[in-house]
Each structure stands twice: as structure tokens, then as C-alpha cells.
Amino acid sequence: MHPTVEAFRDAQTGTFSYVVYDAPGGSAAIIDPVLDFDPVSARTSTESAERLLAFVAEQRLHVEWVLETHAHADHLSAGGFLKDRLAARLGIGRGITAVQAWCQQLFGLGAEFVADGSQFDRLFDADECFTIGQLHARALATPGHTSDGLTYVIGDAAFVGDTVFAPDNGSARCDFPGGDAQRLYDSIQLILALPPTTRLFLCHDYPPAGRAPLSQTTVAAEAAANIHVGNGRTAADFVQMRRARDASLPQPRLILPALQVNIRGGRLPPPEANGLRYLKLPLNQIGEAHD
């Protein structure tokens, strides 16, 4: 199977979202959609999601799924918005419950929030199969960056989230709660075990000067040239490199707002007694300051 994939890049967060479908007029899934958020004014908007909706309408697609590769820390999800607009099912990996439990403690969430994954329509288990119209899909568990990481393998396409980056960028950090460098190495090996021609669709790219952002690579390209895991790099070397590198990285700019929305399936916290919604900022709890 060779599904058609359309990539959309959100310039503010550097996030790639995707529409994957079997044919014009057929069935589709939306993967990793972005809810726009201005941290200065604390205003949300749906401009990025509306671009996806416009493409879906243009291609006359029936969107069956909105899929998250994990609970993102660098952007807010538009999953709830698109689920409502499209009457689609919202899916994520079963590991989301561990992320939710950690966030429940961090943000002091009350009884209104239950850390059981019920905010989503489907919690995918490792190697669970499902369909998108005529397309056969498989949820490949790829934790390490986070405990809930999934790669969606759809025909000859794999949507890898933040597990692996472009060959000259390497791999994702592992210092978030539930992250683990050894698990990430093992997850990347699962991806590299896919057929060499498999198209890998990235959630982010951080290009060096002179290169445009890259949304797509292949298993063969990663195996040969990825600077962190390519050319047979050992697990011990990878873990040592990843731990040293992670210790120097600043925290994502939107990590606190993003987590509060994304553990709810892309929905804002419920309104308080005054009718307003609030995001919490727990002080001195996330990472260390970096220059």
C-alpha cells in the first residue's frame, strides 16, 4: 500500500501535521494537529487546524481518525477541535495514562480530571491493527522520548512522532518524565527494522543553516546516516550521548501549557466558577534554567 500523505508545517512550533488518505474522495486520518497558542496573551486559535480542514474538504475526504503520536510538550493539540468538527475518533497510545498520572500530580488537578485515558476514544496497544478506509494501519509502540510514544505504520509510511529526527538531527530527548534513553534506542531499532524503502514522516525538523525543513526521510537513509543511531552505533554509546546532550537542553517553550491541554485530548481545562478557563504554572518544577 502506498497511501497519499500531505504535510503541513506550523512555523511557530516547527511541528509537522499530516493528512494520510487512501484516495481523493476516500478515507483519511489526521496526525498530530496543532492548536495555535500565544503564550503572551494566552489566546488560542485554530488557524493551523483550519488549514487541515480546508485540505480535507478540497479532497472530499472522510476523516475517520485523529491520531496523536504522544502527548506533545512543544505544542498544543487541536485533536479535540478536529474530533468535534469531523466526528472522527481520537486515538493515542495506552501509555498516555502514565503521562496523565504524572501531570495530575504536577498540576494539582482536581476530581474533574481522571487519569484513565477516557479523554480519548481509543488507546492503542503495541502492535494493535486498525483501518483507515482501504488502508491497513498498525500502532508500533516506540517509547523512550515519552512513555506513550507510538509510531503509526500505514502501508509504506510510518509516522514516527518525536522518536527519530532527520539524519542530520539525530534523535529526540529522553529527559521528560517516563523518558529513557535505552528504551528510545530500542524503539528506533524497531523503526529501522521496517523495510528500507519505508517513508518516515517526522513530527519536527530543526534544520541547520542552508537546509529547508524536512518532513520526510526513509528507513534506509536513517540507518546509513543518522548522526545518533546510524551506521551501527551501539546502545551504550547512544545512551551516554543522549544523557549528556539532554542535560544541556532548555525546556520546550510551551511545555506547561501543552501538557495540560494534550492530556485532555486537545481540550482546554474546564471553566472555573467565574466562567473562565485557566492554565496552571507550577513554579520551580520543570527542568533547570539554561543560558
Structure description:
The protein has 291 residues and is an alpha/beta fold. It has a single domain, classed as Metallo-beta-lactamase, Chain A (4-Layer Sandwich), CATH 3.60.15. Helix content is 24%, strand content 24%. It contains 7 helices and 15 strands. The strands form 3 sheets. It has a 6-stranded mixed sheet, covered by helices on one side. Strand 4 and strand 5 (43-45) form a beta hairpin. Helix 4 crosses helix 6 (235-246). The longest helix is centred in the N-terminal third of the chain and has 12 residues, at 47-58. The relative contact order is 0.16.
Labels describing this entry:
291 residues; alpha/beta; Metallo-beta-lactamase, Chain A; six-stranded mixed sheet; 24% strand
Percent range for β-strand residues: 15-25%
First-residue to last-residue Cα separation: 47 Å
Helix amount: 10-25%
Number of domains: 1
Q: What is the approximate shape?
A: globular
